[in-house]
């Protein structure tokens, strides 16, 4: 499902699972497994060893292993690790950061969804070490499902989504609202749309709180035909804190965010106060980031 095209239906033919087998990778593998079973997806798996070396697993090998009962009785991350062990590293044509390697795999294999685990780095440590997750979701062309350290494993047999939170800044060209609505239609889930405004900027922008509230009701494109009218929440203050608070209060199963493509690439990658980074780091549910149109 390319974010550069109009989104009117969910199509997840190819999924890419990116893992380094760190803590949290088990949960990410479970989500990839659940999604693949629901959509009969081909799962491409990449194990990034270093910025210029990685292992790719044949999707057929993944399907044979994870569609059987064996996967439900074992630690799936260990099973996957065993499959990847011994595979030759495939070196990119040029050296580059992890996100460049993953972006190349996404394009070559027409990936519709990338699933990866995040260590949840933020603040000063994140400023020093960087965040692979944010580098990835800001630069790859497909939607990215990031599984943070506080996310609980899902049922790999049947993925359930009952409540979806869409955070919006009314970005032009964003397909995040369409993705959120389509997921709600597919799972029969309730949608809540939240916008966190800056009170100091409302007057300068010429918009009142009432106008912002009205704008919230029209975020979801009409062609999606959302099955149920969404709830709308208008907040003021720090965006990340408010998004996390609303998500916790409503017990969201999924948070959907729009991601801006930095120009030049990675210009915003290491800002410790970036909204999406903190949401991913502290959310108790997976976060789907959808990059806006170029």
Globally, the shape reads globular
Assign the CATH superfamily of the largest domain: HUPs
The CATH architecture of the largest domain would be 3-Layer(aba) Sandwich
> The CATH topology of the largest domain is what?
Rossmann fold
Count the DSSP helices.
Answer: 12
What is the percent of helical residues? 25-40%
Uncertain segments of ≥5 residues (pLDDT<50)? 1-5, 123-130, 264-273
The main β sheet shows up as: 10 strands, mixed
Strand neighbour order, sheet with most strands: 3-2-1-4-5-10-9-6-7-8
State the domain count.
Answer: 2
The helix/strand class is alpha/beta
Mean pLDDT: 76
What is the class of the largest domain in the CATH system? Answer: Alpha Beta
Radius of gyration: 19 Å
- N/C terminus separation: 15 Å
Q: Percent of residues in beta strands? A: 15-25%
Q: What is the N-to-C order of secondary-structure elements (H for helix, E for strand)?
A: EHEEHHHHEHHEEHEHHEHEHE
Total beta strands: 10
What would the keywords be for this entry?
about 290 residues; alpha/beta; Rossmann fold; disordered N terminus
Report on this structure.
This protein is of the alpha/beta class and 294 residues long. The protein has two domains: 14-147, Rossmann fold, CATH 3.40.50; 163-291, HUPs (Rossmann fold, 3-Layer(aba) Sandwich). It is 37% helix and 20% strand. The chain is built from twelve helices and ten strands. Strands 3-2-1-4-5-10-9-6-7-8 form a ten-stranded mixed β-sheet, with helices on both faces. The longest helix has 15 residues, at 25-39. The relative contact order is 0.17. Residues 1-5, 123-130 and 264-273 have low confidence and may be disordered.
């Amino acid at each position: 499902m390319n974010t550069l095209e109009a989104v009117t239906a969910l199509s997840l033919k190819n999924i890419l699972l990116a893992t380094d087998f760190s803590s949290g990778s088990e949960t990410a593998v479970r989500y990839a497994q659940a999604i693949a079973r629901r959509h009969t997806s081909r799962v491409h798996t990449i194990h990034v060893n270093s910025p210029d070396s990685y292992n790719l697993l044949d999707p057929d090998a993944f399907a044979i292993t994870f569609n059987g009962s064996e996967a439900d009785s074992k630690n799936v991350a260990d099973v996957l690790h065993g499959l990847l062990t011994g595979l030759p590293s495939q070196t990119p044509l040029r050296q580059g950061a992890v996100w460049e390697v993953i972006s190349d795999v996404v394009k070559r294999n027409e990936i519709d969804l990338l699933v990866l685990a995040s260590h949840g780095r933020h603040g000063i440590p994140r400023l020093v070490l960087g965040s692979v997750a944010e580098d990835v979701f800001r630069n790859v062309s497909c939607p990215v499902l990031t599984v943070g350290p506080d996310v609980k494993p899902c049922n790999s047999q049947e993925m359930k989504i009952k409540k979806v939170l869409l955070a919006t800044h009314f970005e032009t060209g964003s397909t995040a609202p369409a993705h959120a609505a389509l997921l709600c239609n597919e799972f029969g889930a309730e949608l809540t749309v939240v916008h966190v405004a800056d009170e100091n900027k409302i007057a300068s922008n010429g918009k009142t709180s009432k106008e912002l509230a009205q704008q919230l009701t029209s975020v979801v494109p009409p062609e999606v035909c959302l099955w149920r009218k969404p709830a709308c929440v208008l907040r003021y203050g720090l965006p990340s804190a408010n998004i996390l608070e609303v998500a916790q209060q409503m017990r969201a199963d999924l948070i959907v965010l729009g991601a801006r493509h930095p120009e030049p690439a990675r210009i915003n990658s290491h800002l410790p106060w970036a909204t999406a980074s903190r949401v991913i780091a502290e959310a108790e549910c997976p976060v789907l980031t959808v990059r806006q149109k170029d």
